[in-house]
Design goal:
globular, binds ligand 705, 214 residues, 7-stranded mixed beta sheet, alpha/beta, binds magnesium ion
Length: 214
């Protein structure tokens, strides 16, 4: 029973990153993925776009769908204002266990609530479980065929408000065609594409920023 890639990524963080320093955790993961083992983190190039949009929104309450190893969780949480928090949903217990340790190593665990379970079950419980009224920012980076159903579920549960920003990773590669068609054609969203590259490669990918109009 060897280690998994997420476990090897965590070991690199614990070996090379400075405890309590989110930037060094981010840099260590990017170095690991670029020079040792590719992994499906949003990465450094798309990560800068993520950073700029999170900074612009300055969310009190952010939601992330698909924690994986916690890389984008750290990117988002390190930029939150005092009292801000990021709720991140992950249904794979092994990935959640790695992500908790990555987030703790970065020292931003007080800003993060990692919830284990499938988004379809958890989204309807956000208000009762976590006292969430509405989200200011949502980062979609889980199974690509779940972006659209979960966006609609967030609408139906009244978890979006006028101005909520949805940011979706991988709208080109692997691609999320149904989601893109919806947010680009629905009168309830103002959508814009941020062209970039698939993490750690030269392949085209990008992020879609969609503002809910209420
Ligand atoms: C019930 C399923 C839907 N609800 C869910 N609720 C909670 N967590 C969910 C989840 N779905 C998936 N997850 C988790 O999100 C993560 C899944 C992410 C899927 N991402 C990708 O497939 C992906 C894939 C690529 C990729 C691109 C090119 C390539 F050649 C190979 C891979 C690049 C990316 O940036 C990606 O994000 C996992 O941690 C998984 O356990
Ligand atoms: Mg992704």
């Amino acid at each position: 029973t060897g280690s998994t890639r997420p476990q090897r990524l965590l070991r690199a963080v614990q070996k090379k990153a400075t405890q309590g320093d989110p930037q060094s955790v981010i840099a260590t993961i990017d170095d690991f993925c670029r020079h040792s083992e590719w992994a499906m983190n949003v990465g450094d190039e798309k990560g800068l776009i993520l950073d700029s949009i999170v900074s612009e929104v300055n969310p009190s309450t952010a939601l992330e769908l698909g924690t994986y190893c916690g890389y984008s969780t750290v990117r988002i949480a390190r930029l939150l204002p005092p009292g801000g928090r990021c709720i991140t949903l992950e249904f794979n217990p092994a990935y959640a266990a790695v992500a908790r340790q990555v987030i703790a190593w970065a020292g931003i665990q007080d800003k993060v609530q990692l919830v284990e379970g499938p988004s379809g079950d958890l989204i309807p419980q956000m208000k009762e479980l976590f006292g969430v009224q509405t989200f200011d920012f949502v980062f979609l980076d889980h199974w690509k065929d779940r972006y659209l159903p979960d966006a609609k579920l967030l609408e139906e549960c009244g978890l979006l408000r006028e101005g909520t920003v949805l940011l979706a990773d991988n709208v080109i590669c692997p691609g999320t065609p149904e989601y893109l068609q919806y947010v680009r054609n629905s009168p309830r969203y103002e959508s814009r594409y941020f062209k970039s590259h698939l993490e750690y490669t030269k392949v085209e990918d990008g992020l879609e920023k969609s503002v809910f109009l209420g």
